[in-house]
Amino acid sequence: MCGIVGVITKEQAIDKIYPALIALQHRGQDASGVVTFDERFQLKKGNGLVLNVFNPKNLARLKGNIGIGHVRYPTIGSGSAEDAQPFIITTPYGITLAHNGNLVNYFDLKKNLIDNELRYLNSNCDAEVILNLLAIELTKMNLRDLEPEKLFSALSKIYKKMIGSFAIVCVIAKKGLLAFRDKNGIKPLVFGKNRNSYCFASETVALDLLGYKNITDVKPGEAVFINTKGNFYKKQIAKGRKATCIFEYVYFARPDSIIDGLGVYEARLRLGEQLGKECLKQKIKPDVVIPIPDTARGAAQTVAEVLNVKYREGLIKNRYIYRTFIMPTQAERIEAIRLKLNPIKSEIKNKKVLLIDDSIVRGNTSREIISLFKGVGAKEVYYASYSPPLRFPCVYGIDMQTKGEFIARDKSIREIKRSIKADALIYQSIEGLIRGVGSGLKGFCTACFTGSYPTKIPPLLLERIEADRMMTKIAKFED
User: What tens digit of pLDDT does each residue of 15-73 get?
Assistant: First the structure.
């Protein structure tokens, strides 16, 4: 899961791209990068947060009224500096591209590019593969003038080759800004207009910050092209079953964003309502409901309302610690949990506490927090997740690509409860998850909970992705 932004404007694009990337920082903490175009491409990228990678000097040289930006969360690839986006290719025209998602058939596509197309790839990032696929198709057309229909025709050919999720922005030198989304709409992509300026981004929060109006979603399978004259073109490139990643609403997206017409905060309130009903079924009677900050606050409020008990803040978060879920190693996550959260003892001591979390992945966070609460005198600690047990690898861009990631992979709920040392453990049901997020609507990818993938995933590909991810984790640990 990464964050992308693309801008075409009458002003300097970097003045919009930079604040947009800061608004999307929660989507990736490993690296960030920007490319702008003004007679030539200007590139700045590197490992680290947006505020660390960019400074006034390098921002000043990112000239041009068109550009793209990226914040990285590693999926495919080792997460080295070579994998930072955007990528640039010089022919045809000159193209730069940034990508949010994950190509399931990345290994085969890369091998084919190297063996048959005689391409040299300098990274282990699937964005570079997509960039080369697009360049090859455009080269075959041998066009002096890039007509939108020809561009869309090239896209239709690469859509047929790619399996997985992708939301993409790219600049074609002296031609315009292109954005497109996979046919299932697994990854979010929105755009807005403000006078003679267009902006694409992973979440509406980036467009809100910049004052864009008429914000709408790029539809699943749709491509949008805006040329340098400001002319707007769009086309449905491919059709598929809509399957927006439901984990966006559970955890990844900011609560003030709207994805495919559904407000993230409102979805989390509804998830809390559904979880509260599950707690009633299990006859949980706490003295107080406390959220695990920050994601679970909305859900915890409605759980408290359903149970008719007090809602309180019981954990104070150190805001200078990264999001623990997307930290690359187990040791880093555990250390960050200890540094990140500190209890408010007066709200915990001698009380039966119901803790609300967005999910339980590996069990480390929940185990540490329960231990923390019991250490300051909680009478009993109940733990509730407003998503169901995570059991299946995500192959679409969330760093849960091995079965070994999940505490629920081979344990019953009773066994998980014992492992994390909770006095009670409550999970959301699959039905409650979909009702809560969708408010009666359908069209979500729930593969990490159900094992039902919206795209074809050959078993050998699953095994290969898992093996590659395991080798990457081992390499990082040894480093």
Answer: 999 999 999 999 999 999 999 999 999 999 999 999 999 999 999 999 999 999 999 98
Active-site residue flag, 2: yes
Burial 72-95 (b: 16+ CB within 10 A, else e): bbbbbbbbeeebbbbbbbeebbbb
CATH number belonging to domain 263-441: 3.40.50.2020
The pair of three-digit structure tokens given for residue 460, joined into one six-digit string:
């050998």
**Largest interatomic CA distance in the chain:** 75
Residue 177 corresponds to which tokens in the numbers above? 């800004």
Phi, psi of 405 (to 5 degrees): -65, -25
Query: How many angstroms separate the Cα of 224 from the Cα of each of 67, 83, 129, 155?
Result: 15, 26, 21, 11
**Amino acid code (one letter) for 463:** E
Question: Measured between alpha carbons, how far is 226 from 66 in angstroms, rounded to an integer?
Answer: 11
The answer for residues whose C-beta is within 8 angstroms of residue 365's C-beta and 6 or more apart is 292, 324, 333, 337, 357
Contact 416, 387 (CB under 8 A): no
Compute the distance between CA of residue 400 and CA of residue 445 in angstroms, rounded to an integer: 14
pLDDT (tens digit per residue) in 296-336: 999 999 999 999 999 999 999 887 766 555 454 555 555 66
Q: Is this prediction's pTM over 0.70?
A: yes
Q: What does the DSSP assignment read for 23-81?
A: HTGGG--SEEEEEEESSSEEEEEEES-HHHH--HHHHHT--SSEEEEEEE--SSS---G
Domains of the chain by residue range: 3-240, 263-441
What's 3-240's CATH class? alpha beta
Helical packing angle, 364-375 and 330-340, nearest 10° = 30
Which residues lie closer than 8 Å to 11 by C-beta, 6 or more apart?
65, 197
What does the DSSP 8-state code read for residue 402?
S
Q: Same CATH fold, 263-441 and 3-240?
A: no
Cα distance between residue 50 and residue 55, in whole Å: 9
Do 181 and 221 touch, CB atoms closer than 8 A?
A: yes
Both tokens of residue 403?
């079965």
Q: What is the DSSP letter of 404?
A: G
The answer, yes or no, to whether the previous bond of 294 is cis (omega within 30 of 0) is yes
| Nearby residues of 203 by Cβ (< 8 Å), 6 or more positions away | 3, 23, 24, 27, 188, 190, 253, 254, 257, 259
Residue 164's DSSP bridge partners are 103
What are the Cα distances from residue 47, in Å, to 34, 50, 72, 474? 12, 9, 9, 20
Rounded distance between C-alpha atoms, residue 190 and residue 192, angstroms:
7
SS3 assignment, position 298: helix
Question: In this structure, are residues 22 and 34 in contact, taking their beta carbons and an 8 Å threshold?
Answer: no
